[in-house]
Amino acid sequence: MEVLEAIENAESDLATTLDELRMAKELAAALEQDAKKIRIEIVGLKSYAKRQGLTAPHEPSADVVPISANVQMFPSSGPDLELMSRSDAVVHVMRAMPGPVDRNAVHEHLADAGRFDTIDDISLTLSGLKRSGRAEKLGQGLWQVAEDIATAEVR
To answer: How far, in Å, CA of 117 to CA of 57, rounded?
Structure first.
C-alpha cells in the first residue's frame, strides 16, 4: 500500500505544480503585456516632451525638430527587432549567429533586443519558417536559415 500511496501523493503534487505553472505563465504573459504598454507610453511621453522642448535632467539637451522638418535619417547599428514581424526577427537573429541555433538562443537574443516573445512563440515561428522554406530543422533542436544551408552545400 505504501507504493500506491506514494503514487497518489506524487500525482497530487504534479497536479498542484502544473496548476502553479499555469498561473505563473498567465502572470508572466500579463506582465509582458503591461511592459509593452508601458514602453509604448514612454515613447509617447518622450515624443510629447521633445515637441514641447522639455528635457529630462539625465538626458543631454537636444534641438527640437518640428515634425514637418526635412530630416535626414541615418541607419542605426542594426535593424530594430522590436518593429519587425516575429518571423523576420527570428530569421535576422539566426543569420546574425554563427552556425545552427536552438530556440533558446533565439529567444535570448530577442529578449535582449527588447522583444517579449515566449519560447512557444519562437517554436511556432520556427515551424512556420520551415513550412515556408525559410528555415530548416537540422535535428537535436538546431535550426538554420534555409539560404545558409544552400550556400554551405554549394561550397
So the answer is: 33
Q: Which residues constitute the domain of residue 38? A: 1-74
Q: What is the helix (H) or strand (E) element at residue 26, kind and residue range?
A: helix 2-51
Tell me: the pLDDT tens digits for 59-92?
555 555 555 555 555 545 567 788 888 999 999 9
Number of domains in the chain: 2
- Ramachandran class of 99: left when φ > 0, alpha when ψ lies in -120 to 50, beta otherwise: left
Whether the model pTM is above 0.85? no
How far is 54 from 15, CA to CA, in rounded Å? 54
Backbone angles phi, psi at 118, to 5 degrees: -85, 170
Nearest Cα to 112, choosing from 136, 143, 89? Answer: 89
Q: Are residues 66 and 95 in the same domain?
A: no
What gap in Å lies between CA 68 and CA 1, rounded to an integer?
A: 80
